[in-house]
Amino acid sequence: MLDKAFELEGFCVVRGPDVLWGGDVRRFSLPANRFDGVIGGPPCQAFSRLAHMVRQNGHEPKFGNLIPDFERVVRDAQPQWFAMENVKDAPKPAVDGYGVHSFCLNNRQCIDEDGKPADQNRVRRWSFGWRGGRVVLPIDVAVFESPVFCYAATGAGERQVPIAIGGSGKIKRNRVGRDPRKDILSHGTQRSAAGFVAVKELQGLPPEFDLPPFTIEAKVKAVANGVPLPMGRAIAKGINEVVSKFQSQGT
């Protein structure tokens, strides 16, 4: 999902190992000075607030903390910049020689391909690293949020909540409509193809997008756990702006 967003903004993305295809970032390294940037989203389970429940039951999150491996890949590659996505409670990465701008962004602040604010409420922490010093990443956000509120694709009981502005000027949550997106169950699983259609819509993917090798449940998990396209494209646009600015300055 993040790769796709960057490709749509003109980046050429070379993909590293993905656990979905049997890859393991812990056995991965890159040659130095061959890539302009490194993007990635280490598994978030270790920093999710649900991890407290997992640990209370005597278990540990499946993947653990892989942010050190993201940091190692950046150190190996020595790119001009990097961008890392995770849940809002995750720590920001630290790599010698890079300043890091870390911030939280809600998908509802981002603009979809139709120029409208996105419906899905999904907050993620972004860490933008720039070699040589900290640079604030500019993000183009919507002036007003969408009047339709949709819970994050991995949450329970997703549903559309239209919000009307009454004559008094007060916000009224006056209708909770039946929506196929409520078929998406907790932890990103669901029982029907309609759920896959719904999660694609929430994440900003076109209707024809598919993952043929996967079961329906696996498709929903893969898409729902990704970065929403509106958010990913907002990050990619901001990085394009920063890179263009420094190139024009000859730095």
User: How many strand units?
Assistant: 8
Beta content comes to 15-25%
Number of domains: 1
| CATH topology assignment | Rossmann fold
What spatial order of strands do you see in the largest sheet? Answer: 1-2-4-3
CATH architecture descriptor text: 3-Layer(aba) Sandwich
Uncertain ranges: 155-163, 171-189
Q: Averaging pLDDT over every residue, what do you get?
A: 83
Number of helices: 6
In helices, the fraction of residues equals: 25-40%
Rg result: 19 Å
Order of helices and strands: HEHHEEEEEEEHHH
Q: Give the CATH level 1 class.
A: Alpha Beta
> What distance lies between the first and last C-alpha atoms, to the nearest angstrom?
31 Å
Question: What spatial form do the alpha-carbon principal axes imply?
Answer: globular
The oligomerization state is single chain
The largest sheet, given as strand count, sense and whether it forms a barrel, is: 4 strands, mixed
What structural class do you assign from the helix and strand content? Answer: alpha+beta
